[in-house]
Every structure is written in C-alpha cells, then in structure tokens.
Design goal:
Blueprint: H1 3-11, E1 29-32, E2 35-41, E3 44-45, E4 48-49, H2 60-82, E5 88-99, H3 107-122, E6 129-135, E7 144-152
Helix pairs in contact: 2-3
C-alpha cells in the first residue's frame, strides 16, 4: 500500500483483516475491463459476524458500524486482488443490503458506514454511486452486506 493510504487507514485506526473466503460458489473479486467487482462482504466486528435485523434487535449505530466493517472487508479483498490499494483510482459504486424490518427506513444511514469509509480512505476518488435497500434476510443472518465496483489502473 502507498504511504498515503496506509497513513489514512492508520489515522482511522483500521487494520485490514485477512480477506474472508467466499461462503458459496463464487469468487471474492473479478477484475475485468478496468473494473474490480467485489462480491458482497459481510460485517465482522471484533472477529464476530454481526447478525440480526435493523428495526428489531440491531440499533442504527450498530448497523452503521456493521456497514463500515463491510467496507473494511471490501478494502481487504481489493488489496488481495490487486496487490495494492494504490491501483484503485475510483470507487465507482457500492451496493448496500440491510437486513431490516418492514417499517425500518434508515437503510441509507446504515450504508453511510461503508460510504463514509471509502471517502475517508480515497478522498474525492472515494465518492461513488450507491444503492441501499432493505431485505428480509441475508446470508448467515448478517445484519448488513455491501458489494463494490472499483475502477483500477495498471
């Protein structure tokens, strides 16, 4: 990693974990046509999967933290796939999925946990298009899942 991105991660108090292995028949990342597509990442906080449902047994603050943890795993997957986060030239899009009750409407606030992280790490190149949707269930009972499309250089 470049000293610049390393410094940003250190300032944020973040250490990239080992990238999580896929839980089914897919790969974690595919680079094609100048883009790195990163499969949906689940939230691990202090080594444990954050499970539950927003609007039921997971608070907004816990959901935001879970989305940030998904963002950290996206960065770990990107570094593993690219060899260096220095190759990331732009965060193009994040897709956020929030395990939530039918009356919970703060999915955008939850997914801000991942979005704000990308902007903190990559600066202006971290600004991206995004979706944030509520779903009734996620793999392994996760509270949040986030996927990403990153533009990459040589």
């Amino acid at each position: 990693m470049s000293a610049n991105i390393e410094a940003r991660l250190a300032e944020l108090g973040l250490n990239l974990p080992e990238p999580a292995a896929p839980v089914a028949s897919y790969v974690a990342a595919v680079e094609a046509g100048g883009l790195l597509h990163i499969s949906g990442q689940l939230p691990f906080v202090a080594g444990a999967l954050v499970t539950g449902r927003l609007g039921e047994d997971v608070s907004l603050e816990q959901g935001i933290e879970a989305a940030q943890a998904c963002g950290v795993m996206i960065l770990a997957q990107a570094k593993a796939a690219l060899g260096s986060l220095e190759r990331v030239t732009r965060v193009v899009k994040l897709g956020g999925f929030v395990n939530s009750t039918g009356d919970f409407t703060d999915q955008p606030k939850v997914v801000n946990g991942a979005s704000d992280l990308m902007m903190a790490v990559f600066g202006e190149a971290g600004r991206h298009a995004r979706s944030a949707v509520g779903v009734p269930v996620l793999p392994l009972g996760a509270a949040v899942e986030v996927d990403a499309i990153l533009q990459v250089g040589a």
